[in-house]
Write a structure and sequence with these properties.
Structural class: mainly alpha
Low-confidence stretches: none
Shape: globular
Mean pLDDT: 86
Strand content: under 5%
Number of strands: 0
Largest sheet: none
Length: 84
């Protein structure tokens, strides 16, 4: 399993950066009134995404992938409103 390889931390950092870049790119057209707060939100959110998907992959959370994605979407949309 990937979690047991030496490259696991490197992989997670790359994945987190990918999430951060995508979250920022997807919101570029939206007006953000608090850019510093938004960047903090994106970094915290991306870290949470990594943890949540890790729990899902390890079957340590009793949700389907669809349910996980739905909850993530709701949280992101609710959180983004704080910075618009």
């Amino acid at each position: 399993m990937l979690a047991r390889t030496q490259n696991y931390p490197f992989f997670l950092e790359k994945l987190k950066k990918l999430f951060i870049d995508r979250l920022i790119a997807n919101i570029d057209d939206e007006p953000i009134r608090d850019k510093h707060g938004f960047l903090v939100f994106v970094h915290v959110f991306a870290s949470g995404l990594i943890e949540l998907y890790t729990l899902y992959l390890k079957s340590e959370i009793d949700l389907s992938l669809s349910q996980v994605n739905e909850e993530i979407n709701k949280m992101f949309l609710a959180g983004i409103r704080l910075y618009q």
